[in-house]
Amino acid sequence: MTDASRAATRRAGRGGRPRRRATFASVLGELLLTAGVVVLLYAAWQMWIGDIIMSASANDKGQQISQAWSKGPAPALPPVIDDGNGVDAAHPRYEPPAMTAPENGVPWGAQMHVPRWGSDYNVQIAGGVTRPDTLDHGWIGVYPTSGMPGQPGNFTMAAHRTTWGKPFNQLDRLHLNDAIVIETEQGWYTYRFRTLEYVTPDSVDVLDPVPQETGAAAGGRYITLTACSPLYSLAERIVAYGVFESFQPRALGAPASLKAVS
Q1: What is the pLDDT of residue 89?
Q2: 47-75+102-258, which class in CATH?
Q3: Where does the record place the region Disordered (predicted)?
Q4: Do the beta carbons of residue 77 and residue 148 sit within 8 Å?
């Protein structure tokens, strides 16, 4: 047999082997595998990569707003508080300006700083606590029944703890007396963290003018921050409480409460 005939025989032998035909099961398996990879990539984006990008963007936006307020003309000083014992001329305390309630799904002209969560933490506050209107934009939302910053009552807010920038991701890492600062064009409202607890989702009394004291008249000036708990679950709510300390007018510069903590 010549070399040419042997080569022809080998080609014929290869050509005679039956090809494996794709079955419905194999095609379905490939599609499911591809879909699984896509789902995992989307989950990774939502929980990690997207969070990092959205959080950084939110802080950058907040910083831009703060800088714009600082460059503009400072509002006039509010009245000095006289508690009946005279005014301390060296360390006067100022009446916190009253704010109007925010509109649902609209940035309020206020933002939150928490030095414990980083010197660059600067997140916008908006009206409402629904996901599509407010929380899924990476904002901190104000409850419709909330009191106003610095005023008697309970200033109540909510935000995501996971995904969408997770503004309240580190709510459980607050330390006693940590500053929670609300910045507006007028100045800075400083609250001090007091305690943390976990409640069921239906425990709406944490939003009362006096937290968990339904029917009690508003006397103190509180702040209440809420988020879902544990992480990636809706089983409970984590709640952080604080009390109002002081208002610093913008004309006097940023308050000491904004200093970084260790």
Answers
A1: 74
A2: mainly beta
A3: 64-90
A4: no
Residue 33 host element (H or E): helix 24-44
Query: Is residue 29 within a helix (H) or strand (E), and if so which, with residue range?
Result: helix 24-44
pLDDT of residue 132 exceeding 80: yes
CB 223 within 8 A of CB 244: yes
Query: What pLDDT score was predicted for residue 258?
Result: 97
Q: Region 114-121: what's the mean pLDDT?
A: 96
Tell me how crowded residue 184 is: count the other CB atoms within 10 A of its CB: 22
The token pair at 238 is 């984590």
User: What's the full length of the chain, in residues?
Assistant: 262
E runs forming strands in 10-117: 107-113
What is the average per-residue pLDDT within 128-149? Answer: 97
Do the strands 236-249 and 221-229 form a parallel or antiparallel pair, or are they unpaired? antiparallel
- Give the burial string for 229-258 (b: 16+ CB within 10 Å, else e): beeeeeebbbbbbbebbbbbbbeeebbebb
Going from N- to C-terminal start, the domains of the chain cover 47-75+102-258
Is residue 137 part of the annotated active site? The answer reads no
